[in-house]
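Recap quiz, item 2
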Amino acid sequence: MKTIFYLLIFPGFLFSLTVGLLAGWLDRKLTARLQWRVGPPWYQNFMDILKLLGKETIVPEGSKLVFLLSPYLGLASVVLVTASLGRSIISPLDSFSGDLIVFLYLLIIPAIAVIIGASSSRNPLASVGASREMKLILAYELPLILCVIAVVLKCKGALQIGQVIQYQLLYGSIAFSLSGALAFIVAIFCIQAKLGIGLFDIAEADQEIMGGTLIEYSGLPLAIFKLTKAVMLYVLPVFIIVLFLGRDLTPIFIIAKYLMLLLIIILIKNTNPRLRIDQALKFFWRIPTVLAGIAVILASFGL
Amino acid sequence: MSHKIIVPIGPYHPLQEEPEFFQLYVEGEKVVDIDIIIGYNHRGIEKLSESKHFDQVPFLVERICGICSSSHPYAYVLAVENILGGEFNIVPEKSLFIRTIIDELQRIHSHLLWLGLVGHFIGYNTVWMWAWKFREPVLDMFEMVTGNRNNYAMFKVGGVRRDIKDDDIPQIKKMLDELLPGIDLFHGAIMDDPIIKMRLKDVGRLTRQQAIEWAVVGPTARASGVNIDIRRDEPYGSSDRLDWKVIIEKDGDIFCKTVVRILELYESISLIRQCLDKMPKSGIIDADIKDIPVGEGIGRVEAPRGECFHYIVSDGTNRPLRHKIRSPSFMNVASDKVAAVGGTISDATLTLAAVDPCYCCTERVAVINKSDNSKIMNGWDLIKLSQDKTLKLKESYYGRSK
């Protein structure tokens, strides 16, 4: 019973969804203000989802089951992360050994779900989008994993979120060490690529491939993808906060840190054009991967 | 090994404001070939024009395109004035300056609009919104001078329809001044931002040779180093009496096209300023033309996108016997065939937009088989058709004039 509550209400599905949609609104509102527009009211994202739920679902020819199921795959995996991560923040001792690795895996699944869904729709634009998403995964996954390895080394080999939090309680936030700072900056870029916004809005790229991966989706499955995006917008910054700024995890500090990260992401999004996919690959492999590698080396020397 | 798939851009696509169809043949992300299919926006303007009298046609042709809605009427009145003996001979002094002011204001608003769209297409929506915000005062200026934000209804054969009031001139100058910081901002951003450079530099390159071979016009040609500008080559309005220069860039990529357009903004502002200074304080603005004699005339105007060409045949009645329009986009869009091939899809879409295509200008003719909606005429058929028509026209025209 308790597990279901954790998963579905707090800190799992409902809570993360609400926060994610509100964060999405903040993004839209700030973006609008930066662009001399008015922006939507706070409940706009909720209304969008509600509206999508009432729309007809059009399923293209092809593997219909895969097409319809892949959105749920993505949502389920991120909800799992939110529940588990939230539990770890509330009571660090409850986390299980190796959950960091599990989180890394679960956080790739939404992207993979998008690829599977897009490919099964047999749309040429969707397949271009899927191939871009795939390349993007190749680009950002390595630096992100290196960042996490740097954190793990810093915490003397702790593969458990609870231990990472406890280490930071004792010795201060990891982001304030040399290796931690490097890894933190890299991680900020990685989560933007994971979210697919701003510089890395490549797989959807409205003006190039008309929404790419999501082009054939409508109604409920599209709403599920949007929800996945919203939950990601909540869980990824929180994940980074726990890893790098985990010294003080009282609610007020978590909210402040979350808003700060969100603000950075929104500002980067609004002051940069979209990269081409080959440029994104080059960028990630040349700069963040090298920086993250340096962070790992520094962390292994305890810096 | 070849895995060609077709990526459709259009007929309805967020990249385009208007329906148009580009088929990109891609291998992975690389565009290997492109088909350009036009004919979705044909409205029969030329035919309509031949059923209106000479004074009505400017209102019709300025509705060809909402963006260059002074170039088309201007080219049309130039063509009619060509029959009458040339713009400089019949149009009052003051009207020449007013015409140039309208023409250059239109260039500013069109280039700013394009700049915003390019921002939008590279996913930089802040540039989009900001460019269009800075474009707003230009439309206000239009409203002040002509009474309309678009479709200005300013041009008539032998003059202009509205005078610029002396009281308005300081206000227009002030608004021009306020425009400069915005343009400086974009100039700086385009020149300095490394990521914008990454997206625009060496993309969609049209070499000088290709530009000449594909006969591109306007900023697209000037960005490739082709030194053409109708305002200088065949002066109209007051452009020969003002001090300005033609902006030329060498590389022909999208970055150069952007730079050319931004620098042209400065030139246009300077041109308007000079016009306001040199314009006679008083005087008539309309030559009061009543009859159009028999004859044929050509009008050429440097529209924001390039040479806008109008051809008029008059048989002495009050309606044009033939009205032929060739808009700049018709020439520029075809050059995508070389410029967009070889890059990725992201580059290709940007290249398609970089010539500042205006499809409602482009559409002149579409011949469709009603039963299966297929096109039944190819290029040679059309040339044959037009030759036949010219022959017929000549017979009727010279037959009657004799």
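The radius of gyration of chain B is 22 Å.
The longest strand of chain B covers residues 295-303.
End of item.
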